Amino acid sequence: MTEELFREDSYLRECEAGVVAVEPQGIELDRTVFYPRGGGQAGDAGELLLPDGRALSIAETCKGAEPGRIVHVPAPGQEALIEALQPGVRLRARIDWHKRERHMRFHTATHLLCALVPHPVDGCSITADAARLDFHTTEPLDKASLTAGLARLVAGRHPVSHSWISDADLDANPQLVRSMSVSPPRGSGRVRVLKIEGVDLQPCGGTHVANSAEVGEVIVTKVEKKSAKTRRVVLGFAPAGGA
C-alpha cells in the first residue's frame, strides 16, 4: 500500500519516496504527497525529481487497481525518463502547489456550502478552476444569498481539522454522511472525518485548508435545476481574489 502523507497534512508539498513499480498506467511509489482523483476532487499534478536531477512531469494521479495503491501518471513524451526508473530507485515527489492550494480552498468551500444548504448531496466536482455540488432538493436556491453566506463563514475564521473514527462508529452515526453519490472512504478499518468548527462535520478524504479564512473570496457563479429533485450550485473564485 502507498503511504498517503496528504491525509494527515494537506500542506506537504514534497517528500522523498521509493519507486515500487513502473507500469503502463503509471508509477507507484511507497509513499506520496500526491492526492489521487476521488471523492469528486481532481488528482494532483507535479513532478518526480530523479537522482540525476532530471524531472519527470506528472499530469494526473489516480487510484491503482488494488485498494490502497496510488498511481502517478506521467505526461506524454517522457519515455526516456520513465525507462530510467526501476523499483528501488529513490526520488523526490513534488506536487504542483498552485493547483493543490486551489483544490484545498474549493473543497473546504463546498463544506461551507453544505452548511448553508441542509440537503443531501447528489454529485460533486472539485477542480482548480471551479467546484460544484448537486443538492437533492426541490427548493429554489439564490445565488446572492449563498454567496453572502459563504462570505460570512469565510470571515468567521473557523478552524478546520480532521480526526479518525472506526467503520462501526460511522455505521452508528449515519447522519454524518451527506453524500448520496460518493461513499465515505472505507477499507482501512477507519474513516477520516472533517470538522469545520461550529459549521460542518462529515466524512471526507480530500485535502483542505486549516481555517475557513484561507478559502478567500468565493462566489456562486451559477444555480441551475438539473432535474425535478436536484439543484446544482457552481462555485468560482472572485476575480479580485482568485489565486
Structure description:
By secondary structure, this protein is of the alpha+beta class. The chain folds into 2 domains: 13-95, Elongation Factor Tu (Ef-tu), domain 3, CATH 2.40.30.130; 99-237, Threonyl-trna Synthetase, Chain A, domain 2 (Threonyl-tRNA Synthetase, Chain A, domain 2, 2-Layer Sandwich), CATH 3.30.980. It is built from 4 helices and 15 strands. It has helices at residues 79-83, 97-116, 143-155, 167-172; strands spanning 3-4, 14-23, 26-29, 31-32, 46-49, 55-63, 70-74, 90-95, 121-126, 131-136, 160-166, 190-196, 200-203, 218-227, 230-237. The strands form 4 sheets. A 6-stranded antiparallel beta barrel has the order 2-3-7-6-5-8. A hairpin with a 6-residue loop joins strand 6 (55-63) and strand 7 (70-74). The longest helix is centred in the middle third of the chain and has 20 residues, at 97-116.
Strand proportion = 35-45%
**By CATH's scheme, which homologous superfamily of the largest domain applies?**
Threonyl-trna Synthetase, Chain A, domain 2
What is the name of the CATH class of the largest domain? Alpha Beta
Q: What is the N-to-C succession of helices and strands?
A: EEEEEEEHEHEEHEHEEEE
The backbone outline, from C-alpha atoms, is: globular
Spans where pLDDT lies below 50 across 5 or more residues? none
Give the class from helix and strand content and strand pairing: alpha+beta
- Shape-level CATH architecture of the largest domain: 2-Layer Sandwich
How many separate domains?
A: 2
Number of helical segments with 4 or more residues: 4
Helix content percent band? 10-25%
Number of β-strand runs: 15
Query: Please, what is the average pLDDT?
Result: 93
Lateral arrangement of strands in the main beta sheet? 2-3-7-6-5-8
By CATH, the topology of the largest domain is Threonyl-tRNA Synthetase, Chain A, domain 2
Compute the separation of the termini in Å.
34 Å
The biggest beta sheet is recorded as: 6 strands, antiparallel, barrel
